[in-house]
């Protein structure tokens, strides 16, 4: 049996960094997609083809998937595990762990199956390309093999791809959650839930250039927390509070309030030291030109900013300043939408 899943990328709307300290964060799926196609490979192995990375095919025997998963499960530190594991290509490791969990925990019969993954989401763009690939991969296998696990289980399995990629056990909730469900999701204490939103959410994605690693920026905030706990905690709580208010604004379709919360959040990011001059310039120009609001998206240190607007003159002004700015739409359908439709006919 053949199957296919398409999963959207994602951007962070509100609450980055706060979510790591027990607060709320919001993420939105965007209309850029990764696709996974599954079928038979005519062998007694499980195969993964990463078309956009090396166009190589990686084969795994059932026992090898179990070995990789067992070592991952008992490892106290993901970074140590990834550094020491023996595998032909590190890019294939996240997919091997996801497949291993489906095989071990969900009874998936993987041998003889091939999955080919492609993505239109640029790597390193800030739109969660890897999370979309892992989500599409997980859902394609689930649909093909008739796995009917709860949504939360499949989200957690797909998150292992991001955990390994980002060397962090807490990674993936925002990105995989949005990619899986579509629309907007809220994350708090690791739990992911869809958030209702009224009307369109107009956005412009602004690439401000190279960014520092997410783990590094998390460390910047952690260091401040260590040096001045009361100040840093107040700033982090401010981010979480604005994310909570953002849920109400989305429900009411109030873009003016949502935009204000975004701009205020960016001001907090500046105080936390995770913004950059180019991020600040993109945000300030967008707001000055009449956007509802704008902020960095993600951990900071460069990379993506998002402005709440669909005005062409703002896009052109940003481009005139040397930014790569593009309009984007929220993807109302995540990978789950196609999966449930597909699996209902199995």
Describe the structure.
It is built from 12 helices and 11 strands. By secondary structure, the chain is of the alpha+beta class. The chain has 2 domains: 3-196 and 332-343, 2-Layer Sandwich (Ribosomal Protein S5, domain 2); 203-328, GHMP kinase, C-terminal domain (Alpha-Beta Plaits), CATH 3.30.70. The longest helix has 24 residues, at 229-252. The chain is globular, with a radius of gyration of 20 Å. The N and C termini lie close together (10 Å).
Distance between the termini: 10 Å
Per DSSP, the total helix count is: 12
- Name of the top-level CATH class of the largest domain: Alpha Beta
Secondary-structure element order, as H and E? EEEEHHHEHHHEEEHHHHEEHEH
**CATH-assigned fold name of the largest domain:** Ribosomal Protein S5, domain 2
Level of helix content? 40-55%
In the CATH classification, which architecture of the largest domain applies?
2-Layer Sandwich
Structure summary, number of beta strands: 11
The biggest beta sheet reads: 7 strands, mixed
SS class: alpha+beta
Overall pLDDT metric: 90
Total number of distinct structural domains = 2
Per the principal axes of the C-alpha atoms, what is the gross shape?
globular
Low-confidence stretches: 342-346
Estimate the strand proportion: 15-25%
Rg, please?
Answer: 20 Å
Give keywords.
single chain; alpha+beta; Ribosomal Protein S5, domain 2; Alpha-Beta Plaits; 2 domains; seven-stranded mixed β-sheet
């Amino acid at each position: 049996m053949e199957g296919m899943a398409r999963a959207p990328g994602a951007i962070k709307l509100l609450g980055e960094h706060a979510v790591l300290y027990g607060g709320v964060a919001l993420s939105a799926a965007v209309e850029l997609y990764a696709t996974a196609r599954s079928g038979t490979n005519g062998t007694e192995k499980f195969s993964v083809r990463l078309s956009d990375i090396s166009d190589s095919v990686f084969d795994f025997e059932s026992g090898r998937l179990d070995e990789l998963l067992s070592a991952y499960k008992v490892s106290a530190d993901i970074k140590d595990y990834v550094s020491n594991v023996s595998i032909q290509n590190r890019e294939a490791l996240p997919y091997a762990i996801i497949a291993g969990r489906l095989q071990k925990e969900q009874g998936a019969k993987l041998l003889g199956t091939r999955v080919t993954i492609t993505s239109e989401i640029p790597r390193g763009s800030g739109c969660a390309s890897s999370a979309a690939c892992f989500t599409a991969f997980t859902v394609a296998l689930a649909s093909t093999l008739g796995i009917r696990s709860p949504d939360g289980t499949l989200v957690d399995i797909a998150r292992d791809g991001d955990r390994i990629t980002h060397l962090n056990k807490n990674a993936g909730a925002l990105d995989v959650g949005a990619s899986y469900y579509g629309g907007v999701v809220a994350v708090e204490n690791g739990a992911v839930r869809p958030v209702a939103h009224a009307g369109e959410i107009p956005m412009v994605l602004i690439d401000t250039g190279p960014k520092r690693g997410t783990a590094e920026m998390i460390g910047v905030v952690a260091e401040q927390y260590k040096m001045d706990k009361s100040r840093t905690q107040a700033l982090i709580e401010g981010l979480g509070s604005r994310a909570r208010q953002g849920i109400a604004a989305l429900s009411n379709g109030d873009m003016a309030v949502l935009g204000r919360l975004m701009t205020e959040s960016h001001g907090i990011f500046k105080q936390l030291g995770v913004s950059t001059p180019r991020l600040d310039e993109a945000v300030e120009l967008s707001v000055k030109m009449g956007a509802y609001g704008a902020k960095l998206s993600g951990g900071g240190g460069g990379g993506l900013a998002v402005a709440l607007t669909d005005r062409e003159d703002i896009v052109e002004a940003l481009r005139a300043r040397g930014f790569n700015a593009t309009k984007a739409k929220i993807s109302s359908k995540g990978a789950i939408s196609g999966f449930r439709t597909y699996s209902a006919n199995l």
